[in-house]
Amino acid sequence: MANKKIKLMGRVFLGFDIETVTGLHIGGSETGIEIGGVDKTVIRDPLTNRPYIPGSSLKGKMRSLLEKYRGLPQNQRIGQGYIHSCGADDKQAGKEAYRDCDVCQVFGVPGEREFATPTRLVVRDMHLSDESAQRLEESARTDLSYTEVKTEVSIDRVTSAANPRQMERVPAGSVFSNRKSDGAENAGADVIVYSIYQGDDCNAVRDVERMETLFTGMQLLEDDYLGGLGSRGSGKVRFKNIRLSIRANGSYLERPEQIGEYATLAELLQRRADIIKEVKRKLNLPA
Fold it and tell me: Which pLDDT tens digit goes with each residue over 25-35?
């Protein structure tokens, strides 16, 4: 991004709750597990010991689903797998593709790519709500602190021997939320921050219209699963109590302006054209 002139026009903030429809397993550290203990543990906040949803899990899953939805080539090796990233296999062709690649524009490409512009999307960790934590603390049915243990049995197809494994999950019906439960002002309760830029290789109108890519990723996630063990029933989630607000460049230090509140993702999607139009209006962008 050397010598590029880019201006932040504003940021849209999305706050929401995530409710687990089936048990949720997002893996944590396996160190220190004793023989006879749980084979796959969930990730936990080291200070509260409560399970949480890492922002990287939420962002990575939406990106992965969008790449498949758009049929994008998996050309960038990440850890044990691959993702799509414009310019991973051909820098010149990648520069041309990047201009029109909604996924890379929204979710980002490595900063060393000369054609890269700022990543639009920030996704924060989500914490187990106080209400859900209290309910799980008082429950006599949880196997471990805040979680259940699901036993699965695989069968050796040669010897027919059973191989039981124990998986830790956050129980169905639990809610993850960054809102305060004490009625205090919920500044900072957002989960997603979506930035809108204007300048060299950036078009603010296109950025606003690309919010539809984010909404599509949320719907794809609701229809799929979050975390691991999804093909075996875990990880179905739904978005609830969605809240949108905005800070514009000219009034960034003022309170965020509300755009709307939506009980469900389906309700938000019904209003998505109006949302995009309202964001353009608040940023003084052409419709």
Answer: 998 765 544 44
Domain contains 132: yes
> Could you tell me if 98 and 104 are in contact, meaning their C-beta atoms sit under 8 angstroms apart?
yes
Q: With contact defined as beta carbons under 8 Å apart, do 166 and 39 qualify?
A: yes
Residues of the chain with pLDDT under 70: 1-2, 29-37, 153, 156, 160, 162, 181-188
Domain that holds residue 143: 6-282
Domain count, the chain: 1
The beta strand positions in the chain, using DSSP E, are: 6-20, 52-53, 76-78, 81-83, 121-123, 126-127, 148-155, 162-169, 175-176, 192-199, 237-248, 257-264
132-156: pLDDT as tens digits: 999 999 887 788 889 999 887 677 6
- Tell me if 176 sits within 8 A of 15, measured CB to CB: no
The label of the residue with tokens 């229809």 reads 223
For residues 89 and 99, what is the distance between their CA atoms, to the nearest angstrom?
16
Residue 287 in domain: no
Q: For the whole model, what pTM was predicted? A: 0.91
